[in-house]
Amino acid sequence: MTLPSRVQSRLFALSQRLRQCQAELKLLDAEERFEEHDALCEGEFMSIFRDTCALVQEEHATNPPYLLELISEVQKIHNKGIGYAYGIGDLYDFMASWAHDDAAGRTLIVDRSEAALSLPHATIPMMLEMLNIDPEIAMQKVGKIRPDPWHSSMKRHSKSTVLARFRPDLPALSATRSTPLAASIYDARCEVTSIGSISPIKVRMSGKNSCMAMIGACGHKNRAPGLNFCLPDDSLGVRFLDPRLSGVATQMAMDEDLQMIFIGDRDRIKSFAWGDDEGLYRELSPVHTLDSTCSDGPIAVLPNGRVVRAGVGGVASWVIDELETHRFEGEIIGDELDPGQTSRDDPSEIELSSGSSRSSFIRFTQHPNLTPTVWEPLPSNPSTLICAEHFDLIKYGCVSVDLEYGGKTAARYLGHGGAVSDFSVSATDPRVFLTACHDGYARLFDVRQPLPVITLDACGADALCEAIVLAHPDGIPTVFTGTGKHEQIKVWDIRARTPVYELATGNNAVKSLAWDSKRNCLYAATECMYMDRMGYRHDYRPGNIPKESGESIEELHEGDYEQCWPIGAWHAEDYFGYTFDAGNQRIFRYAFKENPDVTVLPAYGDARVDEYDPFCINLHPVRSSLVNVSRPLADNYKMVNIPKTRRTYCKGKSCKKHTPHKVTQYKKGKDSIFAQGKRRYDRKQSGYGGQTKPVFHKKAKTTKKVVLRMECTVCKYKMQLALKRCKHFELGGDKKTKGAALQF
């Protein structure tokens, strides 16, 4: 539908403002007028986004027939601005929220940290020491530099777990005595257990909470797919299954009616059943193999008996009842694959079925280039999926598509200042959904409104918001958010508009969250960022563990080599009431109960200081009164490992985005004298017709080649970047006189 002329003129004016602002920013940056540049970023540039939201809000109030077209045009303006801000403009690491409006009821909930500086606990004193700043003077100017040690008085309830740290000065919360489930959550009354797992990618709970499953990577250098699963109604705990795919599985969907898990790598989908009408299976049973070539996006099971997978411009569809099944071990579905075409180190473990071909392909008629990266079916209408657009195409939108009506776009949602990384819905309130975004915010949407109704500052403009869960214990909306950098889970009371507390994860990054509403349990898939793909732990120091959790920080063990602590950990040992480091990948289970056994806590990990580290950069630690170390530690342990990092684009299959990379220099062993001479001879002979004698010419300059080895901290994908540095220049010489320089 054509937009009215008055709306078109306002959109044109906003686009013109954006172009002019970008031109001014380029000019100020070229002239190195950085103060004016920053003021323009925070002023006019951000106001353009706020004005576009105001336009949408005004038009939405009248519910015009052209609203969807208007939102699409506004999203184009947002895409251009956000792409410039993160691209050639390089304006922000994390874009501030611009879609909230407290006056209009679209609230921004901010988490005020206890410390003034949002930095890892060991970084602050090192930074002050390097800048030669007295810690007491810094505290007078900016306030508290590091949080106070944990104390039992911080507990909200006598049964609160010691792995929770509550926010000070909390307002009245939503839970009351009449809502015991919600009260147990807001009081952090829970039992915390954990178990080692594969390297996690995504964890999900089935619709009726009968199965929990997590996909990830395992094997040599994490090149093989893996599946951890748990059936809470049996007593067998978390188990492992090799799905026998050619690559690491990155997508997963679950269906409670079929009692099946569908997982997929880039080319195939495999389904596994966890039970039937007679009961639960002891192990997962393989059922289908689907050929999903050219459709490597997210997977969903529709209520009409179809399984679909997203691709470029549409979704591939299979009718489940018409599919071949693996009736017995070794039966091939479709053609037989070549096991050599894989990155796995164990090709003999691959199941060789090419899979059943798709039944049909549903195209997105209104958006032919839409490529969903993550989606979630709406509980009220499972054939309608909330989709995140592919941010590599400089698209940061969120749309809902109805696959029952040929992929028609049902609605658009604005407000994301980065790529959407996850969705969460709750059957208790099917009208709302929650999004996690790489700009560090979580946003709660009403499906009937294009702008977020609540924005949560989950990461303080300091990290990616990667994992979220929306729950409704006793009907009270509650949000859990997790991130990798801050190594914690935050709990939010939506009605009270406040964060309540943090949950410890043992210095592990939170990759994915799942909620078991039947048992009032939270599952967290976490990854130890201090462990490489070979299983070695890096950058650990002896721990400084209080004699008993909750005692004064003055009473410490000497450097504890049995209980080590990561040097780069976000929290100090005294931040929570129980000190522990996971030291490996783990699935955590937080079981909230009215009367929990608070002594149920996870075991300390087995990381050690002296584990093998092939890339070691040794630096002396900084001595400071703010560092939580004892004197024997400072005297005896003087070498630490501080890795260099760089944020760059990761080509790994599970990332395809900008992530932090660990950077080391690749050093090749020295060749033999014969190999060096042969290499020089071959290089000189190339291009000269194959003469039998070497032809040597002076070069205008000589260069040294330096190779950087970069490893993604998220998916562990490794790549190399060759740099050429000029060593010196030579003007050349007289061919008749050896070594003679040119005369001027």
From TrEMBL:
Cell division found in the keyword field: no
Start and end residues of each stretch annotated as Disordered: 332-356
PROSITE patterns: RIBOSOMAL_L44E
A Pfam family of this chain: Ribosomal_L44
Keywords attached to this entry: Ribonucleoprotein, Ribosomal protein
Gene Ontology BP term (one): translation
GO molecular function term, any single one: structural constituent of ribosome
Keyword Secreted: no
Superkingdom of origin: Eukaryota
A GO cellular component entry from the record: ribonucleoprotein complex
Protein family per UniProt: Belongs to the eukaryotic ribosomal protein eL42 family.
Record's protein name: Large ribosomal subunit protein eL42
Organism: Rhizoctonia solani
